[in-house]
Amino acid sequence: MTASPEGERQAQYFFIRRPVLAGVLSLIITMMGLLAIRLLPISRYPQITPPAIQVIAVYPGATAQDVAEAVAAPIEQQLSGLQGLLYYTSANASDGTMTLSIYFDVKRNQDLAAVDVQNAVQLASPQLPAAVRQNGISIIKANTDILGVVALTSTDPRYDAAYLTNYMKLYVEDELKSVPGIGNATTFGGLQFSMLIQLDPDKMAQLGITVNDVADAVREQNATNPAGRLGREPAPPATELTIPVTTVGRLQTPDEFNDIVVRAEPNASVVRVRDVGRAVLGSQNYDFVGRLNGRPTALALLYLRTGANALRAREAVARRVAELSKNFPRGVTASVPFDTTPFVKASIREVVITLLEALLLVALVVFVFLQSWRATLIPMLAVPVSVIGTFLGLNALGLSINVLTLFALVLAIGIVVDDAIVVIENVERIMATEKLPARQAADRGIQQVAPALVAIVLSLVAVFVPVAFTGGVTGALFRQFAITIAISVVLSGIVALTLTPALCALLLKEATESHTRGPFGVFNRLFDRGRNTYVRNVERVLRRPRAGLAAFAVVIVLTVLLWRQVPVSFIPTEDKGYFAVAIQLPDASSLQRTEAVVQRVEGFLRQEPAVRNIVALAGLDILSRSSQTNSAVVFVNVAPWEERGKRDALNAITQRLSGRLFGMKDAIGFAFNLPEIPGLGATSGVEGYLQDRSGRPVSLYASELQQFVQAANQLPAVGGLQANFRASVPQLFVRVDREAAKSMGVQLGDLFGTLQALLSTLYINDFNLYGRTYRVQAEAQAQFRQTPADIGRLYVRGANHAMIPLSAVTRTEFRAAPTLLTRFNGFTSALVTGTPKPGRSSGEMMAQLDGLIRTRFASEGLTLAYSGQSYQERTSRGAAGAVMTLGLIIVFLVLAAQYESWSLPFAVLLGVPFGVLGAYLGVWLRGQPSDIYVQVGLITVVGLSAKNAILIVEFANSLRSQGVPLLQAATLAARDRLRPILMTSLAFIFGVSPLLFAGGAGAASRHSIGTTVFFGMVVATGIAIVFIPLFFRLIQGAAERGSAPRESSRAER
Predict the structure, then answer these.
(1) Taking a C-beta distance cutoff of 8 angstroms, is the pair 222, 767 a contact?
(2) Is 578-728+821-875 assigned to CATH 3.40.50.300?
(3) What's the gap between Cα 871 and its chain centre?
(4) Would you say residue 518 has pLDDT above 70?
(5) How far apart are CA 955 and CA 450, in angstroms?
(6) Contact 606, 880 (CB under 8 A)
């Protein structure tokens, strides 16, 4: 409801009479904002990654099928119904490991989610194999916000990868964890120390020793044995000493383990570990090989703590690594070869530069219109107060400085000057037309525009505030942007009602004749001519309402057509300054063979002059996040953006590299961008799981999967789709003759245990070294586990202690089976990843894949479930429309309360489609998809379109209340409000124009949001303001005819 004139007069007189107080309030807001900047965390994106919990279990010696059925399935069955659960996926590998990843809604507390998962695992524990429980089940709160990688390398050949990995684990990892801002540091790979009891099956058979005999001896003799104290209480009188008693405890050296007695005979013959093998200090496993720029290395992944400042954390890591380096062995050096913060720093720097450019362009536009440095200074002072003061609000609400909040501030520069421009333009108009001094003109001017200012502020806030209540990742992204805009708009309204009228009274001079010569004279003449043309067009539309409504209908139709025509995407792909290369060799390839291919790929990369660091991990399948000896991943950092030309843009580098990779005959490799938002999937393209809900055999499912991939790659929008599932990997199947085994007195448990221990590893117990606890494991020496025939030469104890070779009770045969079995939401699945063709969007690709499933594969029991970034894109579809609809409803209610009318707000809201048309037209012309930044821009355009309409409708309604005829009121409002509308709109349009032509880090997102708001406001300013007077006349006229038809008719006459 509009405040009374007396209330407005009293409030404005107060700040005009107390200009120092108005200035002090603005200074306090600015100073508090500056202090808040130092406290706010800085990152590329806010904390928007869905919380994830990982469950890791090991079933030594088991196949992928065994792990999926015996380990993954029982745990997954307990996950149903967990609060906030989105989906879960398990990777079950042939090395016996299961990695179950469980993803929750972004609003779910990760600590509480971890407790829920732990309870689910406890419920499933009785159903799990004993070997799995013995090895332990790890439940990890996954941190996906990778800050970088610390590497240890050495020029001294004595310090191999195993030494460096353990040195990292012992002396570096914990130090990195204690760095402020670091959430976790994890040494990659399994090369940490382990005491390996490497057994000789031939010697064991000769001496009648089994694996269980050795394991029992180690457990007995490598144990902590507390003995007590002499003289402990209660003790006899006069006891003078209390002496602790110690005895042999855990062993530490290989010699001590070699001396363990496995068997002692009455005749004094003794069999020790060294008689049936040897104990060596080795590594827990050798599944991964780390390399940095072609040299073996130890790698530690650094994760950013939630809410931490990424840039400060990176600087603190550099200082800590420099301190630690002083104590490294000679020849060992540390570096940070993979670092995500340069992209964060460069993105923020580019946005800040854009922000300064916008500020200068806005100042130029304001100066051209006001044609006085004094007058220009007044609205420009509103910018630092509103923009810097916004950081105070961000800090109070627990938000961060990121690209979204900075984008919001870039747009806010063109918005926050609006309120001040409206005030000063009206004050100058009164000074010129009524010849009043500045003080009186300021008082009268603020009274006239205060209701419009309140309506504008409330309407803009009403558009953005509902965004804060949307859920999911999309809602989290929207929330940062919307709250930033809302805070700046509120502050600009406060400044316009306090500081601006005070400055007008102090700084503005007496009205002088308008400029008639020079550049300003040319501008004024052009403006007057343009205003006359505009008024004539308004009158023409007012006289032909049917034609105007027909034109408006065309706008609606075009908007819908463009909305359907523009492809949909989630988030634009950026040149982040780093990328990855996935490498896959033929099935069953050894790790040594994979490492040789990695070296060739490193050679390809060194041919690119822009490549700086190459971090390689042989043995890791990045897509499934599992250990695979025939897979590898390479992470590549390139030169900074300012040092690279168009030829060395990230897309150009990956395209050239992919051409070389496709030429490899013994491996498949492809380069790809990592996800735009860390933690949302493995790649930046389309990602999903093809689920088999019919329970068919794996071989039949693999055939259907191959047909799906082939058909998908023929779709118009699909640039390339691949699946990481193969069911025909060679495996050696050991068939046990149970009757023969039982007839020879062989226990089947001993037989299978022997296979597991000698062909895999048997975890026995632990030992201590360097103040840490490591595993003691038994395994066969390498030469006894190379060929299928070696299995037959293993022995197991039978009846009468006879040693029976496995060749007597087993047969071996090669079979085809998967080395990795993936499950998604409890169903056998395969991860499929791909990218759309150039000019096509991920939304188009997903729509076509869905259509393919419906028409050809749904009847076969196959479904496609999206994950990662694609899941968020699918679930966020329609979120922007719902948010805009809710925003428009709240704007309508605010305006209804402001005007005390249910009909008049429609005159404002009918101007919104013009801005939406312009936004979609710009996006379509530039060949961009409708991504999340476009949706954010659309919300901004909706608010600003309503703002322009409010300026006309508010003034027209005021004239109408004074008795001015309806048609004349609409025309006069359009004429008198044109100047402030053009000033505010052009200030915004020129302010966001640098976003259209942005380069460097984060350019794609700036192009997306810049295109939307630029073209949207051009159309909203150039076309919509011609139709707003018509909407006012029709709606207000209809309202008056409905309430008082006779009075309305007389007014019209």
Answers:
(1) yes
(2) no
(3) 12
(4) no
(5) 11
(6) no
Mean pLDDT of 461-472: 74
The 3 state secondary structure assigned to 359-419 is HHHHHHHHHHHHCCHHHHHHHHHHHHHHHHHHHHHHHHCCCCECHHHHHHHHHHHHHHHHH
Residue 363 CA: distances (Å) to CA of 349, 508, 848, 978: 21, 17, 48, 19
Q: What is the dihedral of CA 314, 317, 323, 324, to 10 degrees?
A: -140
Contact of 653 with 619, CB cutoff 8 Å: no
Closest listed residue to residue 406, CA positions, set 359, 362, 355, 361: 355
Which two tokens mark 584?
């896959």
Strands 772-780 and 762-769: what pairing?
antiparallel
Residue-range domain boundaries for the chain: 5-44+344-509+545-570+876-1052, 578-728+821-875
Residue labelled with tokens 């854009």: 354
The answer to whether 402 touches 46, Cβ cutoff 8 Å, is: yes
Q: What is the dihedral of CA 113, 114, 120, 125, to 10 degrees?
A: 170
47 token code pair: 């904390």
What is the C-alpha R_g of the chain?
Answer: 37
Q: How far is CA 241 from CA 245, 719, 857, in A?
A: 12, 83, 83
Q: Alpha-carbon distance 333 to 326, whole Å?
A: 10
Tens digits of residue pLDDT in 215-243: 999 999 998 888 888 888 888 888 878 88
Tell me the one-letter amino acid at 739. Answer: E
Alpha-carbon distance of 928 to 1008, in angstroms, equals 7
3-state secondary structure of 696: coil
Q: Is 885 left (phi over 0), alpha (psi -120 to 50) or beta?
A: alpha
Question: Could you please report the per-residue DSSP string of 479-495?
Answer: HHHHHHHHHHHHHHHHH
Which residue has tokens 């989290």? 476
Contact (CB, 8 A) for 948 and 1024: yes
Q: What is the pLDDT of residue 515?
A: 57
pLDDT of residue 1044: 58
DSSP state of 511: P
Q: CA 895 to CA 1032: how far, in whole Å?
A: 14
5-44+344-509+545-570+876-1052 matches 578-728+821-875 in fold: no
362 against 126, higher pLDDT: 126
Select from 679, 692, 1001 the least CA-distant residue to 871: 679
Question: Would you state the structure tokens that stand for residue 44, as one six-digit string?
Answer: 């590329």
Which residues lie closer than 8 Å to 588 by C-beta, 6 or more apart?
629, 630, 729, 730, 819
Architecture of domain 5-44+344-509+545-570+876-1052: Up-down Bundle (1.20)
User: Residues with Cβ < 8 Å from 666, sequence gap 6 or more?
Assistant: 585, 586, 597
CA-CA distance, 111 to 577, in Å (whole number)? 33
Structure-block tokens of residue 306: 């939630």
Q: How far apart are CA 385 and CA 436, in angstroms?
A: 29
In 3D space, the residue among 574, 701, 523, 584 whose CA is nearest the CA of residue 1002 turns out to be 574
Q: What is the pLDDT of residues 742-753, one digit of tens each?
A: 889 888 888 888
What is the three-state SS of 562-624?
A: HHHHCCECCCCCCCCCEEEEEEECCCCCCHHHHHHHHHHHHHHHHCCCCEEEEEEEEEEECCC
| CA proximity to 296, closest of 186, 152, 168 | 152
CB 419 within 8 A of CB 980: no
Helix-strand-coil split of the chain, %, nearest 5: 55, 20, 25
The predicted-structure confidence for 599-618, as pLDDT tens digits, reads as follows 888 888 888 888 888 888 88
Question: Residue 564's pLDDT band (boundaries 50, 70, 90)?
Answer: confident
- Looking at 103-107, 393-397, 523-527, 924-928, which range is the least confident one? 523-527
Q: Is pTM beyond 0.90 here?
A: no
